[in-house]
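Here comes my example:
=====
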Amino acid sequence: MDSTAQRAPRPPGRTVAYDPSSAAAPLHVRAAAVLEAGWTGSSTVPSRGLYPHQWSWDSAFIAIGLRHLSPLRAQTELETLLAAQWTDGRIPHIVFNPSVPLDAYFPSPDFWRSSTAGRAAGAPRTVQTSGIVQPPVHALAAWLVHLADPGLSRARGFLTRAYPRLAAWHRYLLHRRDLGGGGLVSVVHPWEQGMDNSPCWDLPLSRVAPAPARSFRRADLAHGSPEDRPTDLDYGRYVRLAGDYRDRGYADGPGDFAVEDPAFNALLIASEYALARIARELGAAASARQDRAERLTAALVERLWEPSAGMFLCRDVRAGELIPERGVSGLVPLLLPALPRDLTATLVRTLSGPHFGLGGTTRLVPSYDLLGEAFDPHRYWRGPAWFNTSWLLERGLRLHGERGRADALRRGILHTAGASDFAEYVDPYTAQACGATGFGWTAALTLDLLHDRPAGDRNGVTAIKGGDRG
């Protein structure tokens, strides 16, 4: 599979509606082929060339798509990831494949040194991992995978085995990562939030002295255009933060970078609802998890909602202030069922207004404010549209009764995924492909959107609210 950056032709000026009768089968087959090409026997790589290992939140999104092709493979995807969990509960953001050469990706296992530097935190000894984490979408993925074939799931004890690991993962985040003391989880590295070089990080990252350029080699530039990737300055700061965290034995505490992020916490809340549903399936009490999800939603509103911005903002824990940048992360809480109605209405206005332009100037949701000074339509998370965040917002819109907007976003995702050859991300105005093509979660989430949903299901995530359909 060619994972180099390839450019899709500029879409025609006239909107092309998605036509299931003519396009569903070819698009489904093409998406399935991407996931087949990335399958290693126990997990799926995001991209053979650019990302040749297993990534945490990628695998969760990939499992959600794989469930429509092979529920067994989707269960295996998550089980492989959970097998690399540390004893302190953290699920590492990378599980390294020992058959991949060290120089194929940086930071490689010899940088993270998980089995030695992470020994006190309970890193596994039989597999090499990174020491940081990624957004906790895993319980939601596990529940949706279960729903794809409940009989198989029960026969294999899938949820019985996954539940204690997922519960430990949430305990780690809630107990070790409340660095701001307000009940929300903090990320200690931009890679943990998943939106690596978002302008939302510029202010807290400015306090970090970059690692010397000679101390690392960027493998990502061999697979994509430099103008699509983070700058060398940003990358040097990422390396410095990760190295300092490693040298502290991966002990959590307020360091140079600690940020409460809306999307990270919203996905934790969504997964708390999913864990409640899993607990009920297993015959255990679920009310405490449901209550916790609602308390976390209240804390999210209290600490991160900014009325003047019309959305949630990130909080710089060290400075004790909200960061005045509008990123797509601040829209993701639209996923949450207990969000106050006036806030959901405001989020929808912001999403379709001039800062994000959905339904007007853009067909997918840009990763950053179209009017922001740092906006760049091609550079990673500084403006391009990503398929996973648009998928999350499609579900949020549908959950809150915005069916027309959700349908339009679904059509936009499907059309753009096919036209861009399942690109990693795209220019939000032109849909020009950026980064890698044949990207794992783009193909997987395309499959999920292609899968028929019952007319009464208000976005396929009634699992969040306790229903039975995925």
